[in-house]
Design brief:
Layout (H helix, E strand, L loop, with lengths): L1 H38 L6 E4 L4 E7 L3 E6 L4 E6 L3 E5 L15 H8 L7 H37 L1
Antiparallel strand pairs: 1-2, 1-5, 2-3, 3-4
InterPro entries: Preprotein_translocase_YajC (IPR003849)
Family: Belongs to the YajC family.
Subcellular location: Cell membrane
Amino acid sequence: MNGNMLATLLPLVLLLVVMYFLLIRPQKKREKQVNQMRSNVRVGDEIITIGGICGKVVKTKEESLVIQVGADKVKFEVMRWSISKVVENANAKPTKKVSVSSEEETEEEEAPKKAMPRRLKKKAAEEEKAEEPETAEEAAPEQEPAEEAAAEEEK
């Protein structure tokens, strides 16, 4: 009778052990990471709250944060537990990826796009347009010797 009871309880015990390793343990690990992320929030970090509000941390307190939101730079206080994630700064330099790619791709990765005022965007667009004819003129001299040779043959 003792062996029969052991055989009956063994699957139940195995099920509990499997559930612990597949569900409970990873959830505790994830919760620990989230709490660490929330406690490491610093002034200047970009965050997203659980309500979907995106803002920049202006001031930190023990259990709350003051964030700055929107074009009007409205400031309000949120609790630390309401932080969903910390957004990586756009100012931070991206890490270099080792790959077999052309030099142009690596230059693009190293130089992130900067936010510019409208006036500067217009000037940059005008400069790009000014550079395009230069590249066309550079390509044209390659064709000119062939055209010159053809013109000389016609003479």
